[in-house]
């Protein structure tokens, strides 16, 4: 029997998201999520997508990722999709930080694990959870290839001029301080899909990808290769996000420490968790912000303007970086769903060949689609992202190659 299934695991500090896919047709067999791992009561939501099963929920203590993954394995087994199945070809792991070394998806061995561990100081919130997820999956199926798909990999093609900060070189090198970028799996998938939508080869197309979710990043993609992206050493840099400041004069941090008497840890939480849209107006959900604006709320309106202003600056900047832009693609929760954000982001940019057709923009759809009028020089697209499918595709391609 040919093994055609891939389990995709996205392990966070207290959560695991998973999807089981059949790579013959990229269909989902089951999806689910475990939350609040390590807390008094954890919750597992499991949805089988084959055999007509109903979604199920379990609430019970799960002390660590191992218990959580064992519970996931039980749920899959109950649907006849057990991890012991010979049909399972590999497990694909989202790994947030791959540094400079990992430019491609990689089959995990001891040396790869060591390198992912070595990167913990530059990704202290993310890599430890990814490592735990990998170890647990290895314990469950030691015989199976485990593949790491890195959030940073797509951005490793950035030239040094975009990747380096103008920071003292010795200090930067000693501490590996540079711009790595994140959301790479999404930027890769969406830029490729955008080329497809235009009926052109990715090598011939220049795209600005705007991944606007709760976290948000922009990237400039020339002929399928990333040449700049808005997130940096960490996901804090760049666009205004749900709870992160994005770009800010770094001296604000000295000021808050020296004059405001705040500790580094307090400032870290402030700029990552309590700023951005939620810090500006108390809400980070774009639906709620739009509802408040429609009801005449000025605080929400200003938060929206600040969000859009930053977005426009990046569109302009990446236009200049690319020189020629064929398409701008909106993706992720806000980019895929919030028509007012798309409209406002390109408003007034007609001189750059950018425009949005009001009727096309207001259509709701799960399909990749163009929303620019026919006369516009630059295509504006909405392209739903699918990071799990991209991880599964990359994982399966790698293990199929190995077995070929
Ligand atoms: P993500 O991180 O990609 O899952 O995106 C989550 C964010 O997408 C939420 O915080 C909302 O701000 C936004 N979002 C989701 N659905 C909608 C919608 N229908 N309209 C506007 N914004 C939405």
From TrEMBL:
<keyword id="KW-0963">Cytoplasm</keyword>
<keyword id="KW-0808">Transferase</keyword>
<dbReference type="InterPro" id="IPR000890">
    <property type="entry name" value="Aliphatic_acid_kin_short-chain"/>
</dbReference>
<dbReference type="GO" id="GO:0006083">
    <property type="term" value="P:acetate metabolic process"/>
</dbReference>
<feature type="binding site">
    <location>
        <position position="17"/>
    </location>
    <ligand>
        <name>ATP</name>
    </ligand>
</feature>
<protein>
    <recommendedName>
        <fullName>Acetate kinase</fullName>
        <ecNumber>2.7.2.1</ecNumber>
    </recommendedName>
</protein>
<dbReference type="InterPro" id="IPR004372">
    <property type="entry name" value="Ac/propionate_kinase"/>
</dbReference>
<feature type="binding site">
    <location>
        <begin position="211"/>
        <end position="215"/>
    </location>
    <ligand>
        <name>ATP</name>
    </ligand>
</feature>
<comment type="subunit">
    <text>Homodimer.</text>
</comment>
<feature type="binding site">
    <location>
        <position position="387"/>
    </location>
    <ligand>
        <name>Mg(2+)</name>
    </ligand>
</feature>
<dbReference type="InterPro" id="IPR023865">
    <property type="entry name" value="Aliphatic_acid_kinase_CS"/>
</dbReference>
<feature type="active site" description="Proton donor/acceptor">
    <location>
        <position position="151"/>
    </location>
</feature>
<keyword id="KW-0547">Nucleotide-binding</keyword>
<keyword id="KW-0460">Magnesium</keyword>
<dbReference type="GO" id="GO:0006085">
    <property type="term" value="P:acetyl-CoA biosynthetic process"/>
</dbReference>
<feature type="site" description="Transition state stabilizer">
    <location>
        <position position="183"/>
    </location>
</feature>
<dbReference type="GO" id="GO:0008776">
    <property type="term" value="F:acetate kinase activity"/>
</dbReference>
<dbReference type="GO" id="GO:0005524">
    <property type="term" value="F:ATP binding"/>
</dbReference>
<dbReference type="Pfam" id="PF00871">
    <property type="entry name" value="Acetate_kinase"/>
</dbReference>
<dbReference type="InterPro" id="IPR043129">
    <property type="entry name" value="ATPase_NBD"/>
</dbReference>
<feature type="binding site">
    <location>
        <begin position="333"/>
        <end position="337"/>
    </location>
    <ligand>
        <name>ATP</name>
    </ligand>
</feature>
<keyword id="KW-0479">Metal-binding</keyword>
<comment type="similarity">
    <text>Belongs to the acetokinase family.</text>
</comment>
<dbReference type="GO" id="GO:0000287">
    <property type="term" value="F:magnesium ion binding"/>
</dbReference>
<feature type="binding site">
    <location>
        <position position="94"/>
    </location>
    <ligand>
        <name>substrate</name>
    </ligand>
</feature>
<dbReference type="GO" id="GO:0005737">
    <property type="term" value="C:cytoplasm"/>
</dbReference>
<comment type="function">
    <text>Catalyzes the formation of acetyl phosphate from acetate and ATP. Can also catalyze the reverse reaction.</text>
</comment>
<feature type="binding site">
    <location>
        <begin position="285"/>
        <end position="287"/>
    </location>
    <ligand>
        <name>ATP</name>
    </ligand>
</feature>
<feature type="binding site">
    <location>
        <position position="10"/>
    </location>
    <ligand>
        <name>Mg(2+)</name>
    </ligand>
</feature>
<feature type="site" description="Transition state stabilizer">
    <location>
        <position position="244"/>
    </location>
</feature>
<keyword id="KW-0418">Kinase</keyword>
<keyword id="KW-0067">ATP-binding</keyword>
<comment type="pathway">
    <text>Metabolic intermediate biosynthesis; acetyl-CoA biosynthesis; acetyl-CoA from acetate: step 1/2.</text>
</comment>
């Amino acid at each position: 029997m040919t093994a055609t299934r891939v389990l995709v695991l996205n392990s966070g500090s207290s959560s695991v998201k998973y999807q089981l896919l059949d790579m013959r047709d990229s269909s989902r067999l089951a999806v689910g999520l475990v939350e609040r791992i390590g807390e008094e009561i954890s919750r597992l939501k499991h949805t089988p997508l084959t055999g007509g099963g109903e979604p199920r929920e379990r609430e019970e203590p799960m002390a660590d990722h191992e218990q959580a993954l064992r519970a996931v394995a039980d749920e899959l087994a109950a649907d006849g999709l057990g991890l012991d199945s010979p049909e399972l070809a590999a497990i694909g792991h989202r790994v947030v930080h791959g540094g400079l070394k990992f430019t491609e998806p990689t089959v995990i061995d001891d040396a790869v694990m060591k390198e992912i561990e070595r990167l913990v100081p530059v990704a202290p919130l993310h890599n430890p959870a990814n490592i735990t997820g990998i170890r647990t999956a290895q314990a469950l199926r030691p015989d199976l290839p485990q593949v790491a798909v890195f959030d940073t990999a797509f951005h490793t093609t950035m030239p040094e001029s975009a990747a380096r900060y103008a920071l003292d070189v010795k200090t930067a090198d000693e501490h590996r301080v540079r711009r790595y970028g994140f959301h790479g799996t999404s930027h890769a998938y969406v830029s490729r899909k955008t080329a497809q939508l235009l009926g052109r080869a990715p090598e011939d197309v220049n795209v600005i990808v705007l991944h606007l979710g709760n976290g948000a990043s922009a990237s400039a993609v020339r002929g399928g290769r990333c040449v700049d992206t808005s997130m940096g050493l960490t996901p804090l840099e760049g666009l205004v996000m749900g709870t992160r400041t994005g770009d800010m004069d770094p001296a604000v941090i000295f000021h808050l420490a020296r004059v405001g008497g705040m500790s580094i840890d307090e400032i870290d939480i402030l700029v990552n968790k309590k700023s951005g849209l939620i810090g500006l107006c108390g809400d980070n959900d774009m639906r709620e912000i739009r509802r408040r604006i429609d009801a005449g709320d000025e605080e929400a309106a200003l938060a929206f303007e600040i969000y859009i202003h930053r977005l426009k600056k990046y569109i302009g900047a990446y236009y200049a970086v690319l020189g020629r832009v064929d398409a701008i693609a909106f993706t992720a929760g806000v980019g895929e769903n919030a028509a007012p954000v798309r409209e406002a982001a390109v408003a007034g940019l007609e001189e750059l060949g950018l425009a949005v057709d009001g009727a096309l923009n207001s259509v709701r759809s799960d399909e990749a689609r163009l929303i620019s009028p026919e006369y516009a020089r630059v295509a504006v697209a909405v392209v739903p992202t699918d990071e799990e499918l991209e991880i599964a595709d990359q994982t399966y391609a790698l293990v199929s190659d190995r077995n070929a």
